[in-house]
Each structure stands twice: as structure tokens, then as C-alpha cells.
Amino acid sequence: MVRPLQQAIAAADSGGEIVALGIFALKVLGWSIGVLLLSVVGWAASSLHVLAAWPGSALAGRLEILRGIVASVLAGGVTALAGLHYETPAVLILIGVLLAGYSGERWLRPLAEEVVNRVRGAIGGNRSGGQP
Amino acid sequence: MSRFAVRHLLPLEMSVALLSSLPIGVSSWVGHGVLWEILHAYPAFMGLAHNVWWGAAFTACGAGLLAASLCEWRAGRYWEGDRLRRVAAVRFWFAMLLAVCHMALAWLLISTGRAVDVFSIAAATPVAVLLLIWSAWKLACLLIVLDPRIESGHIERIWSGQKW
Which bin fits A58, alpha (ψ -120 to 50), beta or left (φ > 0)? Predict the structure, then answer.
């Protein structure tokens, strides 16, 4: 079991593929860290009032912050993937991720919550006899 | 108090824009040097070469930061309230965007193995990024202090204890 694996690693290493794979992994790691950091920085820029009044032990406040960060990271990740797909210059992708992180908290999360509330209201309304 | 709290950063922001961001923008856009060659080797995006996009990003953000800082330096000594908050927000965003541009260029040079070829940029990037992030941090504090919705006594107490 181990010997074929060692042979495969040796064969890949002789062709320089392990080095290429290592560099690829490093690039993916670097990009992931960059996207995550910039999304969170974008979120922080849109949430100065939240950060200034840090709730400390309040669970609801922490949950609110977590939801904002998740929305910003999602928006930043989608922007980065779209930028990589269209071979956009890296500087534009990273600026886009920063602005997407800002937009994620500022506009996308309230929009998503509004949609969810309306859907929930519609479902709840239907269950209780079709009232809006 | 708040209007003086980040005025000492204006020369710093203008220096970074003038000595680091704008030269990089111009050399990557029209310079035909090593940086221009590295960026020009990438395939065009939306009909424009990569070096044009990079040059435009650096030049636009650098010129924006320089203009906003210069404007406040010349005329903003007694600005208060909304006016000060608007120009602080502009400075904050240009400083953030420039820090991102500098980090992106350093990452590109390192990942392509050409960082040694333009060593002056690789060497200057950490300093520029640190100064820009410091500036953005202080401006974020100022934006919090100027926002009437936020309780910011703790920041003002720290600032009032410092000598300017």
C-alpha cells in the first residue's frame, strides 16, 4: 500500500510536479487568506458603529456580527471567483473583494433578511388562513 | 479636539502618495521599464493591457488621496461636523484602497518570482502599507468620534491625553 504511493511521489518529484503543486497550493492559500481578510476589513469599514459599541457578552450582538461577517465573506468570495474566471487583473479583484465585503454588510444582508422575512411572512400567512 | 486629531497624518499621506503610489502607477502605466514589462506580459482584460489597469488603479487612488489630503491641509483647519466627516471618509477609503493595491502588487511580484527585479518596490511596499493602514485606522477612529450615533468617549479620552 505504501510502496506504490512512494513510487508515485518519487515519479511526480522527478518531473518537478510536486514543486508545481506546492506553488499552486501556496497561491490558493494566499488568495484564500487575502479574500477572507479583505472581506472582513470591508465588513469592518461598514460596521464602525457596531465595532465602536462592541456588545461584549451579548449573544444577540455577537450573532448579528457573525451574520454580517458571513454575508461579507460570501460576497467577497463570489467576487474573487468571478474575477479569476474572467482573468481580471489581481488589483481589480482585490479592490472588488474589499468593496464586496463592504456591500455584503451594508446592502446585501438587509436585502437578504428582507427577502427571508417576506417569504417567512407569506408562508406563515398561508398557514394562518391566507392573511398577508 | 477631533479636528486636530488626525491632521498630523496629512503630510504622511501626501508623502506616500507622491513618493510611492504615483511613481508606481506611472511606471507601470507608461514607463516601459521592468515593472511595465512584467505587467504587460499578461493577457489583455476588456481590451486593455494589465499594465494599464494596474497603472490606472495606483494613479487614481494616489491622486485621490493626494487631492483629499492637500485640500484638507490647505483649507480644512477649522472644518467641523459633516464636512470633516466627508473628507475623512474619502481619505480613509483612498488609504485602504492604496494599501490593497500595494499588497496586490507585492503578491504578484512574489508569485511570479520577479520581486528581486524591481527590488525597490518590494522593499518599499511594507513601509507604504504600514503607513497607509495606520492612517486608515486613525481615520476610522475619527469617523467614529464624529458620528453622533456612537458613544466614543473612550477614544476622545485617549486623544485628549496625547500631546499634538
Answer: beta
Query: In terms of C-beta density within 10 A (0-12 exposed, 13-18 middle, 19 or more buried), how is residue B122 classed?
Result: middle
Mutate which: B28, B129, B150, B155, vs A, most A CBs within 10 A: B150
Residues of A in contact with B151 (CB under 8 A): 52-53
d(CA B13, CA B26): 18
For B:89-148, CB contacts with A below 8 A are 92-93, 96-97, 100-101, 103-105, 107-108, 111, 140, 143-144, 147
- Report the amino acid identity of residue B17: A
Per-residue pLDDT in tens (0 to 9) along chain A, 132 residues? 567 777 776 776 776 777 788 878 888 888 899 899 999 999 988 887 777 766 556 676 778 788 888 989 999 999 999 999 998 999 999 999 999 999 888 888 888 888 888 988 888 766 655 444
